[in-house]
Predict the 3D structure of the following.
Amino acid sequence: MALMEVVHYGDPILRKKCKPVEDYKKLSGLIDDMFDTMYEENGIGLAANQVGVDLNLFIIDISDIEEEGESIHVFINGEIIESSGESWFEEGCLSIPDIRLDVKRPETITFKYQDESGHEHTKEISGLLARAIQHEVDHLNGVFIVDRVTSTTKMTVDKTLKAIKKDALSKVKYRKAFVL
Ligand SMILES: [Zn+2]
């Protein structure tokens, strides 16, 4: 078991569009570590850039909430190709601790992705899984839940957000210095 550091709002890697996965052979260690990290942090989803890795990959485990059907997922190079309906749901985010926001998103999506072996799948998904997928796909495109709410709503969390950003940026500086 290896835990990774979850990077927070303000870290530049969370604002860039992640690179597609091309080499599937070396992913299993990363995916195992991401699951360990997500469980440790009590999250239900985690995108690779949230642990500082620039790859289009995310994991989801909603087995605590939805008992029926498949609930543990690895999605690679995912793309939402269609969406319909709308729903509101209060979302939290491991990269924005202590902030929860009501976010409006499509209820149903058609999602194209690859599995760990590189096989392609296209599925129609709704409910909590569709919600979690949209949150993680946003991460891989550099988008946060605070970008999905009105500026008035965002203002209510502005102070907390600024504090998180300041802390995240100081950690980036430390990390760079360490690498040198
Ligand atoms: Zn998140």
